[in-house]
């Protein structure tokens, strides 16, 4: 309402491009857990604001790499599931398009890097 009185328009601030984002779960062996859709990784935003994750990377210990879409924003207190196969991306689900195993059943390490290449979080199981 204030801007209407002055004729000014607010300038939207861009979301931060780095923050407290963590891998919180990896389903590495879907058969053992009755999951028919394949492996996936859950990533959660613990930061105080949404995080623009365009260009971020998720990698396993062998160097298999998923790059987040340019326009992807992980909302405040939100979780996104990165599936290894195909599907339609939305705010809660992203798809790698790989359709073959990434995560070792007997243990692996996921590394999450921001678009500048900084290690943001590491999760091992």
Descriptive account of the structure:
The chain has 125 residues and is mainly beta. The chain contains 1 helix and 10 strands, in the order αββββββββββ. It has one helix at 2-6, and strands at 21-27, 40-45, 51-52, 57-59, 65-67, 73-74, 79-83, 93-95, 109-113, 119-124. The chain has a 4-stranded mixed β-sheet with strand order 1-2-7-8, with no helix packed on it. The chain has a 4-stranded antiparallel β-sheet with strand order 5-4-9-10, with no helix packed on it. It is elongated.
Binned strand content: 25-35%
What is the oligomeric state here? single chain
Reading side by side through the largest sheet, how are the strands ordered? 1-2-7-8
Q: State Rg.
A: 17 Å
Number of extended strands:
10
Sheet with the most strands, sense and barrel status: 4 strands, mixed
- Please bin the fraction of helical residues: under 10%
Structural class: mainly beta
Spell out the helices and strands N to C: HEEEEEEEEEE
List the uncertain runs. none
Shape descriptor reads elongated
What gap, in angstroms, lies between the N and C termini? 51 Å
Overall average residue pLDDT: 91
Count of individual helical segments: 1
Explain briefly what this protein structure is.
The chain is mostly beta strands and 125 residues long.
Which structural traits does this protein have?
single chain, 125 residues, mainly beta, four-stranded mixed sheet, 10 strands, elongated
Topology:
Elements: H1 2-6, E1 21-27, E2 40-45, E3 51-52, E4 57-59, E5 65-67, E6 73-74, E7 79-83, E8 93-95, E9 109-113, E10 119-124
């Amino acid at each position: 309402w204030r801007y209407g009185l002055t004729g000014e328009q607010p300038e939207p601030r861009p979301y931060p491009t780095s923050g407290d984002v963590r891998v919180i779960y990896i389903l590495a062996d879907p058969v053992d857990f009755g999951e028919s859709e394949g492996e996936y990784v859950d990533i959660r935003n613990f930061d105080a604001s949404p995080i623009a994750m365009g260009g971020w990377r998720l990698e396993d210990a062998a160097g298999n790499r998923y790059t987040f879409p340019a326009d992807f924003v992980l909302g405040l207190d939100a979780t996104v599931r990165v599936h290894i196969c195909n599907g339609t991306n939305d705010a809660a689900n992203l798809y790698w398009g790989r359709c073959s195993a990434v995560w070792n059943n007997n243990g692996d390490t996921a590394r999450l890097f921001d678009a500048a290449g900084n290690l943001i979080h590491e999760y091992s199981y």
